[in-house]
Amino acid sequence: MDNRDLRHITINATQDLKLGKFTHADAGQMHMYLNYAREHWTHPDENPPVGLILCDEKSEAVVHYKLENMPNKILAAEYLTALPDKALLEAEIERTRRILETRRSEQKLEQKLLQGMHSGPATPMTEQDWKSIKQRGIKRIKQRRSK
User: Fold this and answer.
1) 71 with 96, same domain?
2) Contact, 72 vs 32, CB < 8 A?
3) Dihedral of the alpha carbons of 111, 116, 117, 121, in degrees to the nearest 10
C-alpha cells in the first residue's frame, strides 16, 4: 500500500450528556444540532455529522423507534452513574488480563512459527531430540504448577 491509497477521514460528532432517561425530545434536539452542524461546520467533501446522546437510562424500544430512520445518524448509549461493585470490576480486570495474555502467547507462537519456517531446510528429528523436548516440557509444567 502506498500513500495514494490512504484517505483522510474527518468525523464531525456532536455529543449530548443527559442526566436522565432518554426521551424522544432528546432525539429531536440532537437532530436540530446535527442539521445546524451540517449546514455551518461541515465541508462539502466531508461526511455528515454524527450525534451521540449519553444518558443514564434508555429504553431499547424508544431508541429503536425514534432513531431508526432519521436522516441524521444518531446513537444513544447509557453511562454509569456509579461504579460497579468491587467483585465485578475485579472479574472484568481478570477477564481482560486473560484475553491479553492469550493474545501475547498467540503472537509469540506465530513469531516462532515464522522464525522456524524461515530458518532453512528441515532436518530429521532424532530420538535424542524428542527426549530433550519432552524433558523441557515436563520442566516447564512443573515450574508453572509451583507458582
Assistant:
1) no
2) no
3) 170
